[in-house]
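Exercise 7. Given the encoded structure of a 219-residue chain, write a plausible sequence.
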């Protein structure tokens, strides 16, 4: 595979693949819409904070690579569409199911077949995990690829995860570091939410206690 993309470029490209299907009435996409979608807190791993300037630069790079195209219409806001798959001018000849798998891998990192079946629900119709596994096998052995790779199964896990290869070969050490960082970030977020909830409960109890004291004239 000749095309090698950065993580930032795959995040932008994944957004196009997702939004074309999930919000067709808002597609093609403006720079503002792309930025908002890149920085979503849900269905993104890791969460990022791209500026509109960052996104414009990434879009320009992908246009140069012929993976995006200017879809300028009569309006003043420039919009863009992808050229990843789906037409005679596209860079790749993937079907909708394979594109859905790659979309989730671009947006959420390595996934198990079970996770992919669940998380591609709005993008494609997989009848079972076996169909996902068949698509992954084809992507891994495509004559123009490979486009995905099966990772070593993690200790304690029942399924192996798959990663895309559009950003080059996978470095197991970097992947492990990224996984630990992501898990730590999630744990920190959960802890912060618990602290916030407890603080709110303490404030509520203080207010209720003050009301009781006032009612009993204990001040």
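Solution.
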């Amino acid at each position: 595979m000749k095309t090698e993309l950065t993580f930032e470029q795959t995040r932008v490209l994944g957004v196009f693949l997702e939004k074309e299907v999930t919000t067709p009435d808002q597609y093609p996409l403006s720079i503002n819409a792309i930025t908002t979608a890149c920085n979503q807190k849900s269905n993104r791993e890791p969460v990022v904070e791209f500026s509109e300037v960052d996104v414009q630069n990434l879009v320009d790079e992908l246009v140069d690579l012929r993976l995006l195209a200017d879809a300028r219409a009569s309006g003043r806001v420039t919009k863009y569409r992808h050229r990843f798959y789906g037409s005679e001018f596209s860079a790749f000849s993937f079907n909708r199911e394979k594109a859905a798998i790659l979309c989730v891998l671009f947006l959420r990192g390595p996934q198990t077949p079970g996770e992919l079946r669940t998380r591609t629900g709005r993008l494609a119709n997989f009848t079972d995990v076996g169909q996902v596994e068949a698509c992954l096998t084809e992507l891994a052995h495509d004559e123009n690829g490979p486009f995905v790779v099966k990772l070593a199964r993690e200790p304690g896990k029942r399924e192996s995860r798959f990663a895309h290869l559009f950003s080059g070969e996978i470095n197991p050490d970097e992947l492990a570091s990224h996984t630990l960082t992501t898990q730590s970030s999630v744990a920190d977020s959960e802890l912060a939410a618990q602290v916030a909830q407890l603080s709110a409960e303490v404030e509520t109890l203080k207010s209720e206690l003050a009301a009781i004291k006032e009612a009993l004239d204990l001040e």
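Remark. The beta strands are 29-30, 68-70, 79-82, 148-150, 162-164. Students should compare their own answers with the one above.
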